[in-house]
User: Fold this.
Amino acid sequence: MPRSRLPRAVLAAICAFALSVAAAAALETREVEAVVTILERLSVETGRTVFYDERAAREWFEIDAESSRLIPAAGFGEASWKSAFDRTMTGFLAAIPQPELERMTRDFSGRLGKMTPEHRQMATAMLREQVKHIDALREQGERYRPMVAPYAARLRLLSRRN
Assistant:
């Protein structure tokens, strides 16, 4: 390959890689719909509340593998389920209005009055760390918020079951 074409070829390869990474990171509405619908069905089957942490996608995948197998029927493998679940849930966290999160934090803090001062101090420190963690997750999910926001009411119901 002549030297003048080498930089163009490298640039083209970099652009193709960047586009493939962007496509992999994109969240499609159909994925959100599938994740929410699967979670609704599994939540009814199990009576479990939907929550989000680093292990939640795997737990729901395992629950589904032992029951209805909705996840593979929707076209997800374990890795693609985790990706779609994580993006959906962080998008959901980003879609929760800041005043609502602050109210939830105040409500929880209000329940700390029933503790000893030492336990209240420990719980307050843990709550502050949780708020920081949730803020980081909300920041991650901000780019998915537009796709997830139409499903926020359904996800809110799932997160409040039981």
